[in-house]
Amino acid sequence: MERLRRRIQIAASILGNSYWLFFWRSPIYQGALKKLCFPGLNCYSCPAAVTSCPLGALQNALASARFSISAGQVQVGLYVAGLIALIGSVAGRAPCGWLCPFGLIQELVAKLPVNKRELWRPLRWLRFAMLAVMVVALPLLIVDAAGYGQTWFCKFVCPAGTLEAGIPLLALLPDLRGMVGLLFAWKLFLLVMIAVGCIFITRFFCRAICPLGALFGSFNRVSWLRLEFKERNCVRCRACYTVCPVDLSFFDGRDDINSTSCIRCLRCFAACPASAVCVHFGPGSPDGGEEIVGVCPASKLKGRGVVR
After folding, report:
1. Structural domain of residue 256, as residue ranges?
2. Residue 221 falls within a domain, yes or no?
3. Is the CB of residue 21 less than 8 Å from the CB of residue 48?
């Protein structure tokens, strides 16, 4: 399962960044595919990117909302909002675990051999504050004389933009280097701090800061793809907690298996020796009695009263 997930992560990252003509043509692809949003954090301005970032597109829509409404255009950002809702409704936060290029980078950084620490649990709510303030409120409320706002999260926080766009563009376009100022220095500092955080805390950015993860994670409890914990099967071996990249502890009731933090990597499903973790896909709820498709791994524990 983990090998399959890693291959899909790499394939998605390559497909989402497959414009290799930037060495000879425009450093930013602006063709027809840029109208599509990649289901993960992948900067629009990355020289190799062929699609847009849904978080950046959402901020752009909100930043121009007041001007658009004043001009009589009431359908503001419906495509982006609808796409995020569609992805979330079907897969929850699975794109974070299976498709996001910046998520892959964080996992690779986490392979450095240092003792890992747990994220301070209250920091889980910081990503919702980022979403509410930096992505929604500031672009809508702080506008110029023409009615346009800014993409606050992209401009002042996003480390993916710094790594995938800022640094490569400075390397490709020497003329830009003279324009580097305090803002880029701040973004570079944030990138380094987040990278250090990811060394000691697996997927630190995803778990504490990423607004896109907050958006997708909000659908985890109602999406078609969801998990079920069969407590009667659990033998308290802690295998699920040991392999979980976001330190969810649902075997002891501390967390919900469909928590907004869950990135749907399915490591717990693959690691559980007692068929206590099931994967469901389809409408309805495991607890509601509705018939849906469910898959559980074959039990590795015999003679322990494990129920399928």
Report:
1. 226-308
2. no
3. no
